[in-house]
Amino acid sequence: MDTVQLHHLGLVYAAYLIAVASPGPSTMAIMSVAMNQGRGPAVVLALGVVTGSLFWALLAAAGISTVLTAFAGGMLALKIAGGLYLLFLAIKSGRSALAPGNGATRTFEQAKPMVLYRRGLLLHLTNPKSILGWIAIMTLGLGPGASHMTLAAILAGCAFLGLLVFVGYALLFSTSVMARTFLRCRRWVEGTLAVVFGTAGLRLLFSKP
Length: 209
Description:
Strand content: under 5%
Shape: globular
């Protein structure tokens, strides 16, 4: 991998880490199960979410690597799609920060491990925003002529970060202390995410091909 690709790789990891760590359907579901059912069930649900994320990652990687290799002009359309999606996340985070309430609800009742795993998997697979998110991620990291090693590094690194974040949510929010801390700081966290997503989206939209 050349210097430019290594730089893009760091940007990909940072963007993915921010995306998966931000409050959303999957993370809120994990937090809810952790607070209501405990550590074990929440970890099982988190593994289902990670599996769904990797599925979208593989599809996005195959599609985008083909497009960027065959049609260099396709980068513009992908940059616009990725940038607009990041701006959408910024608006969503900003609205959530201004909304009343704590956003934590009881998502799932007591269920068997396989049921929880399947629900976590479907939660990510049925979210159309997930594939758009991976399009944005891959666009940041891949360019025309990107090597297979670069693609493998993106997938492996994001898979590790996904496990770290989603399972980490399951472990942390199974404690009452962390649950109360998040609810107290929710507005500040989501407000910060709005700024980060907005900056990343504008940078992607206005960056040179």
